[in-house]
Amino acid sequence: MNKYFPRFVMGLVLLVSLVAIATCRKEPTPVQVGYKSVGGHLNLDVKVTDLKESKSYVLSLNGKVGQDGNDSLKHFGVYGPQGVYDFDTVSTDQQGNLLYQGGVALPDGKYDVTFLIKDKDADYKPIIVRDHWRFEITN
After folding, report:
1. pTM listed for this prediction
2. Domains of the chain
């Protein structure tokens, strides 16, 4: 076996991983996301256009190890060491617009989380990612 083959394979794996991450974070659609903490809830206003029409997407908050809010999100679900809260499923209209206005009840505390919109039909692959949402929930 060629002594360079293992390096080639590792380089190929790294390249595929980087492409997958870049694809995951690509935002092909205009996105507007607003949020604020009010009385024990995180109120969200999400508008996305140019998605596939009449399709279901999952709205999610994901924690990160060592960051505020990760342990609080673990009460809803986990993905490895990360807390995950898939808090709603929303469908696009016949023009491919996704509109969501709602409140998400969360435990009191500080949060530094990631907001994701995931494709329910594609094994929950994130299509939109917003990192470092910092807020505090107080009742």
Report:
1. 0.76
2. 29-137 (2.60.40)
